[in-house]
Design a protein that fits this description.
The chain is mainly α and 268 residues long. It has eight helices and no strands. The chain is elongated and about 55 Å long.
């Protein structure tokens, strides 16, 4: 086609050159009546742009779907932990079990973490700017890290106090049942959060999923402590079970806060 245009340009009179090239271009691409630039856009740029637009729209719709799923998971987190906190703190207070009360307070903190993530996911879903979304992500990550540390401080204070005073908690069947059910629910919930976090690339949601995994670990240690106390009379198993939670809780809180600060520094 380039050779044809060159030949036309060489032999065609200047006053007829544009019209002749226009007709040749239309003949090759089947779009007479339109200018060469319009034909070029229609044949090449428009389909390519359309594919890009369709791809971006599909990606946006998929992200919206995962955001909505994440929001549902956080609603469930808040609701479940509210019930769990009420039952755990109540039964722990009646039985004098620091591990059970600590587990209930962990549920409160887990609800706070869920509320923070709910806010972060909703911010993006309503269509705030990328900068605002990133800021919400950092704020949520920092908030989750702080909740880890709040939990570790309470558990350490109460567990050490119980060991020093040698206070033996009463057996709590309600606590044992609660810990068993939580040990089943929490890993499934954590898996769902991590799956969504990987799809939307949210470190804050991933940290919240890790806090849910910690909650599952707390359920195991709580179940172990309550069972040993009820069956064998090992009063110290309850506060020791609480202390076994601390290394994981402190480490996760430190990593979340550290990463939030690093992301804030890189953003500035």
């Amino acid at each position: 086609m380039r050779r044809i245009f060159s030949a036309v340009q060489k032999h065609c009179p200047p006053e007829k050159l544009f019209a002749t090239r226009h007709l040749l271009f239309a003949a090759f691409f089947g779009s007479s009546g339109a200018s060469p630039s319009q034909i070029f856009r229609r044949k090449f740029l428009t389909p390519f742009g359309f594919k890009l637009a369709v791809g971006e729209k599909a990606m946006s719709e998929a992200r919206t779907k995962w955001l909505q799923r994440g929001i549902l998971l956080e609603y469930f987190t808040i609701g479940w932990n509210a019930v769990e906190a009420f039952v755990a703190v109540g039964s722990g207070w009646l039985a004098g079990s620091i591990a059970l009360i600590g587990f209930g307070l962990d549920s409160v903190i887990e609800s706070v973490s869920g509320a923070i993530l709910l806010w972060r996911l909703k911010r993006e879903l309503v269509g705030v700017s990328k900068e605002q979304t990133e800021k919400a992500e950092r704020t949520a990550l920092l908030g989750v890290g702080i909740t880890f540390w709040l939990l570790s401080g309470y558990v350490a204070y109460e567990a050490i106090g119980k060991l020093i005073a040698k206070e033996a908690p009463n057996a709590s069947i309600v606590g044992i049942v609660l810990a068993t059910v939580s040990l089943i629910v929490m890993p499934v919930l954590a898996w769902g959060k991590r799956f969504v976090a990987s799809r939307i690339q949210s470190r804050a949601l991933e940290a919240d999923a890790m806090e849910t995994i910690v909650c599952a670990y707390l359920s195991f240690t709580l179940l172990l402590g309550l069972t040993l106390n009820a069956w064998l009379g090992w009063w110290w198993a309850d506060p020791v079970a609480s202390l076994l939670m601390l290394p994981v809780i402190v480490r996760e809180g430190w990593e979340a806060i550290k990463e939030a600060k690093e992301e804030a520094f890189s953003a500035d």
